[in-house]
C-alpha cells in the first residue's frame, strides 16, 4: 500500500498540474467574426480557406454546428452530410464517408474527408444495391475482418441512401 502511494506521489511531481485553457487573445483571432473553412479530400478541395457563415458536420458524437468563434474542437467524421452555409446564405450539401474536423483558435476550420460527393451526384439505386450486398456479406459470416469490412461498407451505403433521399 505504501509503495503505491509513494509511486503515485513521485509521478504526480513529474506531471504538470492541469488547469483551464486561457481565453483566446484578440491578436490570435485577428479580431474578426469570420469562420474560414477548408473542406477537402485527397482528390479535391471544395472550400480553401473560404469565409462562410456556418458548417454542420456529422461526427461520431453527433452533428456539430460550427459558427465563427466556436470553441476549439477536434472530431471524427462519420458517414453523412456536411452542410455549408455560405456568407450570402447559400447552402451546399456534400456527402462524406469519413475523416476529421478541427476548429482552431484562430477562427479557421478544417473538414478533411476521405471521400466527398455532391448530394445530387449520389446514385440511390447503386447505393441501395451496395447496402444489400454489404448487409448480406456481414450476415453470411466469413472471417471477423470480412464481417467488419462489410459492416463498414453497409454503414456508408446506408448513409448514402439516407443522403440521397433527404433523410439526413
From TrEMBL:
CDD domains per the UniProt record, alphabetical: F1-ATPase_delta (cd12152)
Pfam families named in the record: ATP-synt_DE_N
Subcellular compartments: Mitochondrion inner membrane
Keyword NADP (UniProt): no
PANTHER family on file: ATP SYNTHASE DELTA/EPSILON CHAIN, ATP SYNTHASE SUBUNIT DELTA, MITOCHONDRIAL
Keyword Kinase tagged: no
Name of the protein described by the UniProt record: F-ATPase delta subunit
Keywords assigned: ATP synthesis, CF(1), Hydrogen ion transport, Ion transport, Membrane, Mitochondrion, Mitochondrion inner membrane, Transit peptide, Transport
Entry's Gene Ontology cellular component terms: mitochondrial inner membrane; proton-transporting ATP synthase complex
Chief location: mitochondrion
GO MF annotations, alphabetized: proton-transporting ATP synthase activity, rotational mechanism
InterPro entries: ATP_synth_F1_dsu/esu, ATP_synth_F1_dsu/esu_N, ATPsynth_dsu/esu_N
Sequence similarity: Belongs to the ATPase epsilon chain family.
Domain (ATP synthase F1 complex delta/epsilon subunit N-terminal) ranges: 36-115
SUPFAM superfamilies: Epsilon subunit of F1F0-ATP synthase N-terminal domain
